[in-house]
Amino acid sequence: MDFKELTYVLALARNESITKAAQELYLTQPALTRFLQRLESNVGQPLFCRLGNRLVPTYAGEKYIERAQEILFLKKQLDEEMQDIAQNHRGQLRIGLSIFRSFSLLPKVLPAFTQRYPHVKLIIEEKDPPKLEESLIRGELDLAFFSLPVRRRELVTEIIRIEELMLLLPPQDPLINQAEPRPGCRYPWLDLSLLKDRLFILQKKDQRTRQITDQLFHDYNMTPNVILEIQNIDVSMALTAAGYGCSFTRDIHAVELQAYQPAPRCFSVGRERTLTHYAAAYRKGVYLPDYARGFIDLVRGQLSEKE
Question: Where in this chain does the record put each HTH lysR-type domain (predicted)?
């Protein structure tokens, strides 16, 4: 079987353009066009049709793409098992995580991984969790790291760290004095209902932190007064330090708050406290080579240092 043929078709489907697919595959556009014409002639029907400027799979094309993904996935599994048996630790590992986590994790994890597995090529993708899940299902990623829950039952997860969601208040907010200690809470606990008139800086709706805080507001029957939606949690923390509004983050970032003077104040929040689970995810039934397990262990070790 010509695996290159399958790879070309998947590139066309992914890019929805012969020009872009050719660039990704390091081919000329005429060469890729001739390939597609020959393939469609061999299967006896078109696999793609043009919809405006987009190249869209036909019904036959969708079936071809589905089976091509399965075949290439099985081939990758076989290759990795053979490599592990040979104990050469050679291969390629495709990792997905959020932009914010990549900033805090990769500078420590990647050098340690490369030192341990110098012959493994790493490919890093930065996406939001729903897109990471889809990339795992399509076989475009081997591992992804994000906060639970997962939407797809085809995925297996391993909890890396249990984290607490923190409410951040500007350093001079008088509600700071309303907080109280509670058993099991890492920070002073503050009743969220007291903040019904406060302004909030929240993440975008497709981010996990935003989804968790939306559920929190729902539990309190509150509609937050949102002054700003922003993707970058670092910016939201800085804005809270400047008194612009209240925000949320995970306890893993508590140390970083000391960079702001005066620093935002941290509080446990929720009926008791609000916990989240940061996890590694991969496809059910997938063979994880030794170096993939090694990467998970390095991430777990890095996060445990921040306990």
Answer: 1-58
Distance, in Å, from the CA atom of 29 to the CA atom of 293, rounded to the nearest integer, reads: 39
CA distance 200 to 216: 13
Asked whether the CA dihedral 105, 108, 113, 119 is positive or negative, the reply is: positive
**From 29-43, 89-103, 189-203, the region with the lowest mean pLDDT:** 89-103
Contact between 168 and 179 (Cβ < 8 Å): no
* Span 121-150, pLDDT tens digits: 999 999 988 899 999 998 899 999 999 988
Residue type for position 74: L
Percentage of the chain with pLDDT > 90? 69
β-strands 120-126, 91-97 pairing? parallel
Give me the half-sphere count of Cα atoms (radius 13 Å) on the Cβ side of residue 34. 5
User: How far, in Å, are 116, 128, 227 from residue 125 at the CA level?
Assistant: 21, 10, 31
pLDDT exceeds cutoff 70 at 306 = no
Q: What is the pTM of this model?
A: 0.69
Query: Which amino acid appears at position 190 of this protein?
Result: L
* Type of residue at 302: Q
Domain that holds residue 123: 72-160+277-304
What pLDDT score does 257 carry? 84
Q: Distance (Å, rounded) from C-alpha 226 to C-alpha 263?
A: 21
What's the number of domains the chain is made of?
3
